[in-house]
Design brief:
The chain is built from seven helices and six strands. By secondary structure, it is of the alpha/beta class. Strands 2-1-3-4-5-6 form a six-stranded parallel beta sheet, sandwiched between helices. Helix 1 packs across helix 7, helix 2 packs parallel to helix 3 and helix 3 packs parallel to helix 4. The longest helix is centred in the middle third of the chain and has 28 residues. It has a single domain, classed as Rossmann fold, CATH 3.40.50.720. The protein is globular, with a radius of gyration of 18 Å. The protein binds 2-hydroxyethylsulfonic acid.
Length: about 220
């Protein structure tokens, strides 16, 4: 029987690569760039796998400098949209003992300057995924939070307001992950035997690791 995957943010990057990967494996794919299409898919009630990939990163600015609308827009997409879509599609996913795979980020776990709203929203996605497993206990539905580090997609072009040069400079010489790397991981999660659940999975390119704490000294430090 052909299974149907609903993939958000599928017009580019990880979502598009995942859509291609699922189609190549014989899945029917509903690929959307906007979460508003959820109602139609929910009515069709045919979705066995929901990949909540769509997300927004506001510019890397401290909250005190950031444009509030950009911050709220990211929250609307990364949190409100994701919850609404999941709620809409869940009855069909439960009926098929299907899967929900949510795109979180390493930013959910590791704080960095300028990432408060983005990281906070991705921490929501991670915890939402874990709690959703509890809600779905006994239904046979699988839920995964996938938490990638640096992947060269349009992510940084969006984050920098369309600055391709800045994006190229960020990824230059560091061999980042690709959309295809992550699509392969997503497909692997989806095709595991049905009694296995990957709760969370964190991935980075080898060239990316962690930085430490920072200390402010003198008058401004306290
Ligand atoms: C973004 C991952 O490492 O570029 O989700 O901040 S990173």
């Amino acid at each position: 029987m052909t299974r149907t995957a609903f993939i958000t943010g599928a017009t580019a990057g990880i979502g598009q690569a995942a859509a291609r990967r699922f189609v190549a494996a014989g899945w029917n794919v509903i690929a959307t760039g906007r979460r508003r299409d959820a109602a139609a898919a929910a009515e069709a009630g045919e979705v066995a796998l929901l990949l909540n990939n769509a997300g927004l990163a506001p510019p890397m600015q401290t909250l005190q400098e950031a444009d509030l609308d950009a911050s709220l827009n990211a929250i609307e997409t990364n949190i409100t949209g994701l919850v609404a879509l999941t709620r809409a599609l869940l009855p069909g996913v439960i009926a098929r003992k299907g899967s929900v795979i949510n795109l979180s980020s390493v930013a959910a776990t590791y704080p960095y300057r300028g990432g408060a709203v983005y990281g906070g929203s991705k921490a929501f996605v991670r915890q939402f995924s874990l709690d959703l497993r509890c809600d779905l206990h006994g239904t046979g539905v699988r839920v995964t939070s996938i938490e990638p580090g640096m992947a060269e997609t349009e992510f940084t072009i969006v984050r920098t307001g369309g600055d391709r040069e800045a994006s190229d400079a960020l990824y230059r010489g560091m061999n980042p992950m690709t959309a295809e790397d992550l699509a392969g991981t997503i497909y692997w999660i989806a095709s595991l035997p049905p009694h296995l659940n990957i709760n969370t999975i964190e991935l980075m390119p080898v060239s990316q690791s962690f930085a430490g704490f920072q200390v402010a000294r003198g008058e401004s430090g306290s």
